[in-house]
Design goal:
Layout (H helix, E strand, L loop, with lengths): L22 H18 L3 H7 L4 H11 L16 H14 L1 H21 L2 H12 L5 E4 L15 E5 L2 E12 L6 E8 L2 E8 L5 E2 L14 E12 L11 H35 L1 E2 L2 E2 L4 H29 L5 H26 L10 H11 L6 H13 L6
Parallel strand pairs: 1-4
Antiparallel strand pairs: 2-3, 3-7, 4-5, 6-7, 8-9
Length: about 400
Amino acid sequence: MADISFVPPDPHDFLDTDSLLTEEEILLRDTVREFVKKEIEPNVADWWEEGHLPSRDLAKKFGELGMLGMHLEGYGCAGTSATAYGLACLELEAGDSGIRSFVSVQGSLAMFPIWKFGSEEQKQEWLPRMATGEIIGCFGLTEPDSGSDPASMRTNARRDGGDWVINGTKMWITNGSVADVAIVWARTDEGIRGFIVPTDTPGFSAPEIKKKASLRASVTSELILDNVRVPDEFVLPGVASMRGPLSCLNEARFGIAFGAMGAARSCYETALAYAKERVQFGRPIGSFQLTQQKLVDMMVAVQKGTLLAIHLGRRKDEGKITPQQISFGKFDNVRNALQVARTARSILGANGITLEYPIFRHMANLETVYTYEGTNEIHTLVIGQSLTGLDAFA
């Protein structure tokens, strides 16, 4: 028998998940990774501490890289695969969840509904400028009294001649205070309709939500619509039901399944490097059994979550993915990423709570990711209903 020389697995890619990717996907992934290393990592701790994000500057840079609406076809969008979009989300969230949220909201929640449900005129008007980052968008669905139950929204729109008049309040809206346009979902006599609302429309305001302990490098706002009047041509004509906003949420949840593994990977790699350098009792703490167990548990969680995300990406590219499978990805990858962050924090001890390292920032951010785009409990019930055929929501 021939002598076979085994090369130990790469601690950063133990199962060689790169072998599952195409050369084009790896090139795109590495381009985003380099961008994050150069533009995000040196600055994001300060942005997070200050509760600030240079949204306009970043939007332009994201646009130049073709990252805004990158998985959409035409209208100035890059037209990449769903898997490539997911890999970009993974790398962005390795930088910070707020950075991935910005790109996700722009592409999956603001651009996607126009692309999917808009008229040709609306697509031509808005999408090319949103793809370049000239125009920033936000998505208005969640309300102060209807988070997990968006169908109970109170925001309403009524016809008035050739216009619509919108009244209501939206809450926890990413990009709201810096957006040029908002996609607002409202109850009408015709069903749930989506409206393209320029944010300079009289009666529209978006006060920023302050004093957040999570997603601090992200703009989060309330949207207030007080007799906001828009012409009929600003209504998305392609949908008049909850199918509209829910399909947008599925686009965003798909990106989160990848993104959460970026945050988890950052925590694991930080803890791994620290454990090999930090000396206690005369030896690196990585030589202690309990520390090795923590490192192994984190590595396995990151690798399994990455494999799951890539599998979901392939299914989406093949047109075979279901909303329940997307819920699976969001549900499992986010909860595991949060556990990885907590475990990594324990390895760094007191150093784990400082912004000199990314771990506590990721851990705080993931508490929000655990809740938004469907709470962990809601996704549990979505999957449970799929298993049993029984609705447990009521």
